[in-house]
Each structure stands twice: as C-alpha cells, then as structure tokens.
Amino acid sequence: LNQLRFEDSIALFTVETLKYLRQGGRIGKVEGSIGDLLNVKPVIFVNDEGVYETKSKGFGINRTLISMRNEVQKKFGKELIDVTIHYGNNTVKAENLKLKIEQSFNTKNVEMVQLTPVLGIHTGPEMFAIIAKRA
Asked: pTM for this structure?
C-alpha cells in the first residue's frame, strides 16, 4: 500500500473558487479572498497527515489544469499510466481535460467520474482532480 500511495501514484485537485475551502476552514479567509480576487487557483494534494497542501498555483483554471498535467509529467514521464478525472458540474471542461491527457501521456485507461457529495462539501461543485497511477 505504501508503494502504491507514495511512489506509484499521484492525486491532485483544484477548484474554480476558493469560497468552499475558505468556508470549511481548509484555507485562511485572507488567503482565500486574495486568491479569488487575483484568480489564483491552487493545485492541492493531501499530505501524509491528511492536511491539504498546495503543490503549485496557476492564474485561472486553464493554466492551473496545465500545471496539474505538468506535475503528472514530472512524476511519470513516458511511463504507462491509468488516470481518473474527477469533476464537479463542468462536464465539457472535464472531457477536454481527458482529451488533453490522452494526447499528452502514455495512458492505458482514462476514466471520468463525477464528484461525490462528500467531496463536494469541501471543494464546491466546480472542482477537478487528476489521479494517476502506474498501470
């Protein structure tokens, strides 16, 4: 399990608004307000203690999704991977992300899964996640 979690996979997500992370206490009010004002979107992962941490940031959701793909590229390069894309209410953007992943990586399987209500409570309905693992 440790091999799979820490070495063979990566899980990243981002949100179109920081409102829900701010309301849930996952980020500070000042950081959330400034981030929304400047249109800065974090690429977030959950650390070993279960705490949200920022891996990188982008200006606007499109640049942030590129940043997420860059993190996957750093981790796996040309290796064969399986990818799951979680998305909230923006199916069109999720399908576009799937297409870019299929074009950019050596993928065995790429699937799309709509956001669960449990995760939606913390992130809001406008989130995207990329979970990739060695195939």
From this structure: 0.84
